[in-house]
Amino acid sequence: MAPVPVFPIKVGHIDDVQELRKGKPTTIPERFVRDMAERPSLSPALSSSTTDIPIVDFSKLVKGSKDEVLQLANACEKWGFFQVINHEIEPSLLESIEKVSKEFFMLPVEEKQKYPMAPGTVQGYGQAFVFSEDQKLDWCNMFALGLEPDFIRNPKLWPTNPAKFSETVDVYSREVRKVCKNLLKYIAMSLGLREEIFEEMFGVAVQAIRMNYYPPCSRPDLVLGLSPHSDGSALTVLQQGKDSSVGLQILKNNSWVPVQPIPTALVINIGDTIEVLTNGKYKSVEHRAVTHKEKDRLSIVTFYAPSYEIEVGPMAELVDENNPCKYRRYNHGDYSKHYVTNKLQGKKTLDFAKIQA
Asked: What is the pLDDT of residue 242?
């Protein structure tokens, strides 16, 4: 992840939500209280509603099902989000990554402080995308690591406690990388393109992992677990903790729709990079996280994107007189720097790439 100037959060002090929660405050610190227009609606109807977010059966894609490729195309075009079942990652590995992630967050704050999200990075423990003293904070603690290529790894940030943390993250990340590579093949097929086109284009793909821990919040109606945003990646893979509260919401037809966890499924979303490459046919979608009054929530997120060196722009096959070029060509590393040097504000970051009318 590219070094960039960021505002450091004083982890372990007033802005660490787990430490705040321990004090059982009767009021929410002003730093976390959202303006009225940003506050989540937590009506029972919204929180308990079932959704039509598509489900894609990976095993059917592998067997060459044309119907499942059409289902994938529909998911990418109409939703930008879908849940993948039968993805070939062992349930025991999903349990292991959840276990070591939760164990890390349950460590004393002094132990977690050994891996701070230092100024100029988006790796380590703390909060990312914070740039000013008066910026509202998310009700969330994060721990993020660069995985591939090797040069983005920072060995000093890889914990020795829990004992199996690093080993588990590496094994899990290799499996998720396979899922990403394969899904991009099927996404290419759904667009009528050669199935290897993305892998050939991406070079050595950049991969990072971020664990998000959302403690319960006494006033979930006043805070956000994670601010609304789209992802700068090509694909994002989200694992929702099996015992966690429902927290992920996506913006669909101007309404926030909750994503109900399916046991062992992975939630996949299209990132800004695929939106640009497909010239807007498949769009990244704004999403956020909300909190719960009594339950905590853990999520494990993998970001998969092209090499920083490659140039990104709409693919010629997806540009014609009916769908003229909507985005300029740019260096992906430049976009990554732009993304992590701006606070999360819906899809505003993508203005970087848009051709202005």
From this structure: 79
The CATH classification number of 17-352 equals 2.60.120.330
Distance CA 68, CA 178 (A): 19
Neighbours of 34 (CB within 10 A): 17
Type of residue numbered 122: V
Q: Any idea which residue has 């059966």 for tokens?
A: 57
Q: Which helix (H) or strand (E) holds 56?
A: strand 55-57
**pLDDT tens track for 178-237:** 999 999 999 999 999 999 999 999 999 999 999 999 999 999 999 999 999 999 999 999
CB atoms within 10 A of CB 10: 11
| H or E segment to which residue 357 belongs | none
Q: Which residues pair with residue 235 across a beta bridge?
A: 270, 304
Query: What mean pLDDT is predicted for residues 123-133?
Result: 80
Torsions phi, psi for 103 (to 5 deg): -60, -40
What are the angstrom distances between the C-alpha of 208 and each of 2, 179, 203?
A: 12, 14, 16
- pLDDT for 340 equals 80
C-alpha 278/C-alpha 315 separation (Å) is 6
DSSP 124-181: EEE-SS--STTSPPPS-EEEEEEEESGGG--GGGS-SSSTTHHHHHHHHHHHHHHHHH
State the Cα–Cα distance between residues 315 and 49, nearest whole angstrom: 38
Environment class of residue 142 by beta-carbon count within 10 Å: exposed (0-12), middle (13-18) or buried (19+)? buried
Instruction: Provide CB contacts within 8 A for 287, sequence distance 6+.
Output: 81, 228, 229, 230, 248, 249, 250, 251, 269
Give residue-wise pLDDT tens across range 232-286.
999 999 999 877 778 999 999 999 999 999 999 999 999 999 999 999 999 999 9
* Angle separating helix axes 165-190 and 66-74, nearest 10 degrees: 100
In this predicted structure, the answer to whether residue 173 has a pLDDT above a threshold of 50 is yes
Give the global pTM. Answer: 0.92
